Amino acid sequence: MKLKIMKVIVSAFSALMIAQAFNLSTPSAAAIIAILSVMDTKKISLAATSQRLAAALLALFVGGIVFWIFGFDAMSFGIYLLCYIPMAYILKVEIGVAPSTVLVIHLWTQQQLTFSLFVNEMLLVTIGAGVAILFNWYMPSYREHIIDIREEIESKMREVLLKMSGFLSVGNGKNDGEVLQIVKEKLKAAREYVRLESENHLTSEITYDEQYFEMRRDQTKLLEIMAVNLNEFRWDGEEMAILSEMFKQTAEQLAEQNTASQLIDEIEAMLEHFRERPLPQTRREFEKRAQLYQLLRDLKRFVQLKVDFYQTYGVHYFKRKEKSRNSTKSN
Question: Are residues 123 and 209 in the same domain?
């Protein structure tokens, strides 16, 4: 916020000085346009500037035609507003309505339509928007924030899995959803950081980050489902211990660069082991077996999300990073 305030101040003052240096009429308009043109990201700034330039051209054209036909009285200005504002919204350049109308007011107050006056107004827009883009071109990187929040999310998800493992080993108790809620809040913050980074720094890491946090969001949904199922799961015996160990291994292999492919084979082997066991003899045993299968299937889906992500994005991403590090070292 402090950086944006400084950009607004410097952009407005610089635009005013440049407009005065060119001896333009009403140079303060350039400062106003500069203030309006300092946005939160480069992408938004560029889009807003192009819309303001288009809006200014449209406003001066409509205003010029209206004043040429109807003269320079208050009714003419009303006709201009009636014509211009709907057109600006239809053409999706409404962001420039206010500053462009200020330019048209200059024509209206000057009571004349000359080429030099039109050039003056377009220069005011160009200087104001151009200076704002120039000073707004520097944007801080959110890369460190993204890395930190990625580690925090992994830590919290690991904590959830270890809680589940402990719950299974003890065989009673109740899962606490507070950690999962923290994970969801962290994921929401991560999405915003990635958005800001993508609109300011167009790098190959953006797609990886977007897909990474999308994968973690899908995993979090599965964790919520498993937490509910675990609260209803009661089964003494070796199955509880085996399942507890599997959740613990999943927690240990949660790290970003871990492929987790071996874990899929182990879960599948466990499922096959339970399939080969004798059929349940009572309704209660059947329900417990069904719960067990459901937990294992959800756990397999949880790990499979990570495996699929790594194979699709992680392999190439880490190869590029390794190649970049080696190139840096050789130089």
Answer: no
Tokens 């827009």 found at: 125
Query: What is the length of the chain?
Result: 331
Q: Would the pTM of this model clear 0.70, i.e. be above it?
A: no
Last residue of a domain, which of 103, 122, 137? 137
Q: How far apart are CA 13 and CA 30, in angstroms?
A: 9
Q: What share of the chain is helix, strand, coil (3-state, %, to 5)?
A: 80, 0, 20
Measured CA to CA in angstroms, residue 207 lies from 60, 192, 199, 311 at distances of 41, 14, 12, 14
Q: Give the chain's domain count.
A: 2
Same structural domain for residues 171 and 273? yes
Quick one: which of 300, 305, 257, 256 has its CA closest to 152? 256
CA distance 180 to 127: 50
- Given a contact cutoff of 8 angstroms between Cβ atoms, the answer to whether 266 and 177 are in contact is no
How do residues 224-250 score in pLDDT, each as one tens digit? Answer: 888 887 776 666 666 677 778 888 888
